[in-house]
Amino acid sequence: MKNTRMIPYYSKLSTPILPEKLKIVMIKTKFLKCHFIIFLLISILSLTLSNKVQADSIWKKRIATNTNLFNDNRARGTGDIVTVQIDESTQITGTEDSTANSAQKHSVNIDTTKFLTKVLGDTSGYLPNASSDTSHSFSGKGAYASNRNLSLELTAVVTEVLANGNLIIEGNRDVNINNEKYNIKVSGIIRPIDINLNNVIQSSSIANANIVLEGKGFLTRAGKRGWLNRIYEVVWPF
Prior knowledge:
By secondary structure, the protein is of the alpha+beta class.
């Protein structure tokens, strides 16, 4: 009689039967591998796109071609723009008082006893002594007063840079208010050191400043004397 050994039932299966805990560990391992692969793909994709997508800088660009934090936007070269803060106040008063007095006295004594007596005969009572008195006086007085205030901002352009670094600026502005037209012009020489960080310079810091305000309209005409009055003052001799 042959000896037969008992073979467990699970040994006949193609795959061995694993304990339940081992199955759970294998499932978790596969799950972690999937997460790692997904994370790796996302990281590679982020690094690839980072060269194309950039966040905006928190620092404002001062000029289009230079983003250096330590530079400013003050005018320095030909063609740059600078804002001129005009705050001018002029007060002119003048008085003139002149007085002129003159007096003259003339007297003529005619001696008729010699030559005229021989020619005309007795001239007594006909050619008396002559005398004249003249006097002249003049008094004139005039007064003039003018008080004007001008406060505005005007943009000027740097037209030239001098050898010492100073800038020549020129600006022009037309304003129309209630059909009253005004033309404001400003020109002069400025120093870059006098320009503040907001690219503004005060009119009092302009050398050889030429600030002109020309008006055209009803108010301007009302403030001027008429042409007939001006001619009258020129022609009138007194």
